[in-house]
Amino acid sequence: MKNQIHSAFDEIKAEQKLKTDTKYFLHELYNKDEAPEPKAKKGLILAPIAAVLAVVLSLGIFTTAVPVSAVSFDVENTSVELELNSLNKVVKVNCFGESEDFSELKLKNLDCESAVSLIIEKSKSCNADISSAVLTVNCKSAVKAERLADTITEKDSTGLTVSCHSSHSKLRETAHSHGISTGKYQAYLTLKEYEPDLSLDDIQKLSMNELKEKISSYTNSQPTDSSTPQPQQSTCHNGTTDGGGKHHGHNK
Amino acid sequence: MRSEEEANRALEKYADMIRRICMVNLKSYADTEDIFQTVFIKYVLSPKVFESEEHEKSWFIRVTMNCCRDYFRSLQLRRTEPLDVLRDYEASLSDEASEVLSAVLSLPQKYREPVYLCYYEGYTAPEAAVLLGKNANTVYTLLARAKKLLRKELAGEEDEKSDTLSV
Known about the structure:
The complex is a heterodimer.
Chain A: H1 2-10, H2 16-34, H3 37-65, E1 69-75, E2 78-84, E3 90-97, H4 100-103, H5 112-125, E4 134-139, H6 142-154, E5 161-166, H7 169-177, H8 182-194, H9 200-205, H10 208-221, E6 237-238, E7 246-251
Parallel strand pairs in A: 4-5
Antiparallel strand pairs in A: 1-2, 1-4, 2-3, 5-7, 6-7
Chain B: H1 4-25, H2 29-45, H3 53-72, H4 75-78, H5 95-105, H6 109-120, H7 125-132, H8 136-166
Helix pairs in contact in B: 1-2, 1-3, 1-6, 2-3, 5-8, 6-7, 6-8, 7-8
């Protein structure tokens, strides 16, 4: 019986097709392992996606986190400066002078108009002379600065003095390095045209209202011509400062 | 990972043996193809270093049987008849081989593997017991019972043949 079983099983051989198919299968398996093609293809697909994501991400960061304009609110000896992103949202708040009362305000991420309204409310509650307050808008583009000023003053009924400037961020940095707001620094630069000996130390002692009066006294004493600004009217000054800014002032 | 040449060498050497184990355990050619692929993937990826040819052969036997068992567990496969597998070979097998294989494949599953290992591969009962993961005495018992059943089956066919001739 053992021989019978042996001879019977001996007749069973693996079919040639079975061997060929298995060999082909193994060959495919080896080629799949060796060829790095799928990974390369994956890389080719992922690279542009990563690039697009990086661009979108950096655009997003630039739009939301990078300050492109600044609004300074100067009242008496207090200065609050709001740094705004391209969506006019507050990304940073800088306080100068006697501004302890303002430091507790939560202005970050608010839109510009709301932030200014809150500052005005706070000033009123601190019995500050709002009529002497000056709002200075600093933007790289003069048009945008005026548009922003219009947006802020549209809702305001306090009769704020608003001045718009087109300047680059270097001016802002210089003002901050001297411990004053951009608005006050801008006023200092304007006044320095009439008083060349004027120093920043002198300015820091003066309130914004005093600065405004000084500038007015010089501008009012000059002969009137078509290019000279008049008080209580829309005015336009060309800056000659290290900030290289232009001044578009208008009283409301 | 083993080289493609090594895999092809093993395929040429053990294909017939794996085919026979598949026939003992499985029901169709399609299942056999799957088992071939599974066994050789395992061989290619196995880090095992074989001490001898005998060691390698016993590894193939064990892996093929285990693969067949895993495959056999599928409910769908259990529905098919065990003798279906012989249909693929009907044309090429001699009458005697066909009868003997039919008898072997009609045995219950537990008898088929010991019969193949001891009567074809020439393993002793203790050696087959190691490969099957069973006690040697169990293998002896299984072989004795299988032999009894085979004798009965083959003798019955002999009787039928002689009856036909006498008529």
